Amino acid sequence: MKIMNIKVTFWRALFVVIMLLGVYSACVRYFKGLGAVSNLSDQSPWGLWIGFDCLCGIMLAAGGFCICAAVYLFKIERLHSIVRPTVLTALLGYALFIVGLLVDLGRPWYIWHLTVYMNPHSAMFEVGWCVMLYTTVLLFEFSPNVLERLHLNWALKIVKGMMPVLIVAGVLLSTLHQSSLGSLYLIMHGKLHPFWYTPALPFFFFGTAIAAGLAMTIFESTQSAKAFGRHLELSVLVELGGALLVALWVNGLLRFLDYYHRDMLAKIIQPSYEAYFLWLEILLAFVIPITMLSFKKVRLSPNGLYLASLSAILGLVTNRLNVAITGLDTWSGHHYLPKWTELMITVSIIAFGFFLFAMAVKYLPIFEQGPATSQPVRAPQKIRAELPKPSHVAT
Prior knowledge:
mainly alpha, 1% strand, single chain, 69% helix, Formate dehydrogenase/DMSO reductase fold
């Protein structure tokens, strides 16, 4: 079916429906206030929009600084082919987080106060400035795609000359605000459940951001190959899968040591509302992906890498939601559940992010081969991917 030369498909129709519901929910929020569109309250002031749009959105966008640091600082040139799509994913993640923040803030038109009324002793102040500056850095890192498309070679030369400074600044800013997001919860002693409250929260937030960034890069690369009919560089994903395995092991062992030193291990195995969510988090974030990636056959399989990265993403998202929502339910005395309008704003932001990614790939040289061609879409397990073949020495 076509309307005005636009082919109508199920996914396009679903996208339109989601965006219409999102716009409606946003209108209700801005014209009638937060109470009319959400279940936020004095007991649960930080709900889905902070837990997912902010904490999870920034964590999942960490692939930008991870891959840029690997390529430009540690000179791992074989990862260069995924720099541009990873930077695009990071830029969209931060930009859409800002959109979600403008929905969550009670008076978003006062957000400029952050740049004038400064409180350098506040972790939120530091997060705000770092996010603002890092988003600017991502715009510069992404700009070569636009400059190449417009053939502005003189401007492209200037940006490339600035790239070493931009990369270092991006890594420093990311390190600061990824860890400081955990610092926001250090003041909640007695309110955040002991399963998730620990003085090591800033370190855990930074560590899980690295793991989530690697997992998201594998997920995004596989989905891009499937959606745009591109060749999947399995050798790159295999290397990322090995790095993800190490990152998950490090995070898992640090969590175990934290629970051990705080005498929490016995409490973890006791059934409770919070324990159920903790078990789900540990299962998805550590047990399943670590078990899968420990087998060489899985690490060499596009489908295996995809499923392991998906499990890690879901588990680490569960971790952030547990910190932001589940861990505070006991103190608040009730279980927070978002309204459908609250949920639709988040879903519409995610859907719009996918749309922007597709448009960028279509019109900008995001991939080294240029814009996607009209090749048939292939499932992850059917993508023809090649690994370097070992040479055989005759005996």
